[in-house]
Amino acid sequence: MNKPLRRIALFCGLLVLALLVRDNWLQYVKADSLKDDPKNRRVTIARYSTPRGDIIVDGNPVTGSTTTSTSGLNDLKYKRTYKNGPMWAPVTGYASQAFGANQLESIEDGILSGTDDRLFFRNTLDMITGKEKQGGNVVTTLNAAAQKAAYDGLKAQGGKGAVAALDPSTGKILALASYPSYDPSSFAGNSTSTDSKAWTELQKKNNPNDPMLNRALRETYPPGSTFKVVTAAAALENGLYNSADQNTDSPLPYIMKGTTTELKNEGNIPCKNATMRTALRVSCNTVFGKIGSDLGNEKMLAEAKKFGFDAEQFTPVRSAASVFSDNMNSSQTALSSIGQYNTAATPLQMAMVASAVANNGKLMKPYMVDKLQSSNLDTIAQTDPQELSRPLSAKNAQILQSMMETVVKDGTGTNAQINGVTVGGKTGTAQHGVENSANPYAWFISYAKLGDGSTPVAVAVVIEDDQANRDDISGGGLAAPIAKSVMEAVIGSKK
User: Fewer CB near the terminus (10 Å): N or C of the chain?
Assistant: First the structure.
C-alpha cells in the first residue's frame, strides 16, 4: 500500500474510532440525561402512552385519564381528567400535555407516570405478563367533606380567600381550598384551539383574580389580630405574664415607645390594664402591642419562628415562608405583634398556630401525602407524623386554650360555636393598602375539642372581598362561619 492510501486508511480508522467513542458516550454516559430531557419527544410520548395513576382522597380518586382525540397530529394517547377540578386544584395541581405539571402532579410524577425506580419490580412483572404499564397512586391525607365545606363556603362568600385545616395531633392536612380556582381539565391536552386558549385566559395578566394562585399555600396576608395568639404565647413563654386572668400593665391611651403616636383600639373596649383573657376576647391592640414592645423584637421573632414563621413548609408542595421581621424598633415590633406592619402569613401558617395551641404546645409538621402505592395498591412509601417544634409548654398551651375558648364563648368569635363541642378561636381584621385604604382582610383561626379531650381539627380562614361594605368586614362575620362548617365536616366524618 502506497503512502497516500495508508494515510487515507489511517484517517478513516480514526473517524471510525471517534464514532465508536461518541456512540458509547451517548449510550452509556449521556443516556439518562437524554432520556429525561424535556425536549426529547419520546419522553413525552412515553409519559402519555399509558393512563396516569390517581390522586386519592378518602379512598376515591379525584383524578382520571381519558384517551386524547386522534384528530390532527397529536401522538399523545392519554390526557389527565379531574373530578371537581376547581375544588381540588390547590391539592392536585395540574398535569398538561402542553404546559407540564405542578404541585402533587409534578412532585409525585414518577409514581403517577410509573417511571419511579420504586416501581421497577411491578413494571418488570407487567412487562413479562404482557400487561400494560400503569402508574401508581398518591393517597392524600385530605378529608373530602372538609374540603367541600371549605370550598363551598369560599364560593358562597364570593370574594377571594383560602382555607387550611389540619389534624393537630398528626399534622395531616385535612382541607386546602382556594377561591377563585380553576379546572385543570380545561388545559390538560395540547390543542391550540381549546387547551392553549383556556391556559391563556387563566394567566394573571389576563385574569386579575389570578385563579391559578394557590392562596392557601403561596399567598401571604397580614394576619391582623389572629397573630395576637402568637404574642400571647410569647408573653406566657417568656414569663411576662403567668396566667390568663392576671392584669396586664396596659395604659390607655398607649403611646408607642419612641414615638408620639397612639396605638388605638377598634371601638370603646375595656383594654386598660385588662387581663390577657379579656384582651384576647375583645381584641385589644394596646395590650398586645405593648406586650410585643416590652418583650422586644428578638423574643417575639424567636416565638414566631417556633410556630413556623420565616421558613418555607414542604407538604410536599412548597408553602411560601410567612414573615416576622428582625431589626425592628420598639414601635414597629408593637405593630408587628398585632399582625400589622411587615407581618405576613399564609393560611397554612395560621392553621399551624391554632394547631400547636390545640395540641398542648406541640407543633406537628404539616403534610398532605399519606402514602404512595403501586398500581396493584401495594404501599411503597408511608409518611410518618413528625414533630416540628414546641412553641409553648403544655401548661401555657392550656392557658391559651382557655383564652381562645372564651373568644368563641362570649367574645368576637361566637359565630364559630358548635353544639356539644368546645371551640377555641381568634378573629382578625387586617388592614392593608396605602394608608389602609383597601378593604381589610377577614381572618379566623380555630380548633374544635371533643368531649373525650381530642382535637381532630384546627382551621384558618382568610377572606379578601373588595366588593363588601367595609363596615361589614370582620373575621367573626365573614370567616368564622366557614371555619365552623369545616370543623363540623371533620367531626361528622369521624362518627
Answer: C
**Cell numbers at 30, concatenated:** 449521556
Per residue in 26-73, pLDDT (tens digit) is 676 666 666 666 666 777 777 777 899 999 999 999 999 998 875 556
Q: What is the mean pLDDT of residues 309-335?
A: 96
Cβ count within 10 A of residue 22: 11
Q: For residue 71, how many other CB atoms are within 10 A of its CB?
A: 7
Residue 14 in domain: no
Query: What's the start-to-end Cα distance of the chain, in Å?
Result: 94
- Tell the burial category of 11 from Cβ atoms under 10 Å away from its Cβ (0-12, 13-18, 19+): exposed
Nine cell digits for residue 442? 377577614
Looking up residue 469, the CATH number of its domain turns out to be 3.40.710.10
Query: How many structural domains comprise the chain?
Result: 1
Query: Which residue of the set 225, 250, 374, 446 is catalytic?
Result: 225
Residue with cell 402505592: 373
Contacts of 129 (CB under 8 A, 6+ apart): none
pLDDT-wise least confident of 220-229, 274-283, 465-474: 465-474
> The pTM is what?
0.89
The boundaries of the domain holding residue 303 are 224-368+390-493
Omega before residue 180 within 30° of 0, cis: yes
In a domain, 75, yes or no: no
Give tens-digit pLDDT for 130-162.
Answer: 667 788 999 999 999 999 999 999 999 988 999
DSSP three-state, residue 174: strand
**155 in any annotated domain:** no
* Catalytic site includes residue 106: no
Mean pLDDT of 446-450: 97
Q: What residues contact 428, with CB distance under 8 A and at least 6 apart? A: 223, 224, 225, 226, 227, 339, 441, 442, 443, 444, 445, 475
